[in-house]
Amino acid sequence: MFDFNPLYLILLVPMFLAWWSQAKVRQIYEKYSNQPNRRGYNGVDIARRLFVHYGLTDIRIERTAGYLTDHYDPRTNILRLSDGVANGRSITSLGIVAHEVGHAAQDAQNYRFMRLRTFLAQRVGQVAGWSSIAFIGGWLLGIPVLMGLSGVILAGMLIFSLITLPVERNASDRALKSLEATGLALAEEREGVRQVLRAAAFTYLAGLAQQLGRFLFFVVTVALAKGFIHPA
Hints:
Structural class: mainly alpha
């Protein structure tokens, strides 16, 4: 008979939260994708007007393939918009574009958490894929240094996810304020924009939960192996 190990809940619960949050984001995005913004601007128009609002003169706009792939790249000063958002004239496009331009404004104004996240992304991103390999290799070969390296990488990924939260919250705050200041979002449209931004924010909370689950799974597994704790 199969015995379920409660330790797996550390991984399974965050995975369920991530799945649920992604489904929620798609639901909210699709809902407001069917509601055109009253100004009739598409995503590129919105971005250019917000560039003027923030005084940003060196940001390029590029198209990117996929769905929910919109992002600002601080390394190249490029705002990448998916075709649906770039061409869309919806409330969803309003929220997404304003949020990503908020990141560009953070970069231009040297927002400290943005700088820290970029620093961590450049370093943690290069080694993130090695975490599982180092852990399994260290476990099978009995090399504690490899397992320790896996723990360090997981800790770095957890810190990155934690730093991401204030960065995203600040970008969403900037998005709402800029849309109001420029008149790009009318009063009756702002609640829709808030819904879009809140749905996206929950995905980052779920991402943090996933990273925390992976790190705790590592800690508990090592503790069990070393005999620091004993299974019930």
